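Archive maintenance. Older records in this collection stored only the sequence; we are now back-filling the structure field for every entry so that each record is complete. The fields below show one back-filled record exactly as it appears after the update. Entries are processed alphabetically, and DUF4261 domain-containing protein is next in the queue.

ARCHIVE ENTRY
Title: DUF4261 domain-containing protein
Organism field: Novosphingobium malaysiense
Length field: 249
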Amino acid sequence: MQNDSKERAGLQILFARNSRPSADDVAAMLDSAESGISARITHRPPSDEGWLELLASGLTFDLRGLAPAAPVPFEPMMHRYGFETEAPVEDIEAVELVASGHIAAGAGLQPVVRMLANLAADLVLRLPARAVVWQPAQTMMEPQYFSRTVYNWLSGGAFPALGLTALEAGADGSVNSTGLSYFIGQDLQLEGRRGEAPVDAVKLAIRLVDYLVCNGPLVERQVIEAGEGGLIAEPSPFQNRVLIWRERA
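Back-filled structure field:
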């Protein structure tokens, strides 16, 4: 499945069938002093249209697929994080939170994604959510896991590499990312090392994703210090990908 454009990408919140919130439910939640959600409704069409415009920190977002309107289309994602048992894929309905108005064209910018993720994390903890989907990385996350990793990132911690991107270890020990290109225009490919456990290679790739999100796209060859020694990183001349390997075998 091809990634949606940055203008269309949003976070989908999944619910059991017939348990999606209505516009009235969301309005009551936001009006409650106990909600703790710093967002307000700036446009509220008739309830049967199934959407609201929300304002958070000066940025506008549409919450679509609210009951009693039809849910937004949903497809199970291949990368799943945080679930102790099987991720829910049957009898599921989705609503979607997406950047709207004048910020839609900048939906891939970090300040917009950070607020999108923050607002979604607030909502899923206060609604009977079953999962959260991020289409650019083809990921599905358990709600508590999603909120915990987002709040950690927003408070200065590492970028949620296993959620807002996906990492997959290959049979040759390499690790490839999906969805990093949404943020920097490039995905990464970490070359495998003989004898290295896949879990250790993925841990290293997580640190590299955080580094690249913080520093932006790679435009020339450079050395990245990674504790155990330097890593050589260079942009691929043939595709939007950062190739990374150990300075010492």
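Update note: The radius of gyration is 19 Å. The first strand starts at residue 10 and ends at 16.
Entry marked complete.
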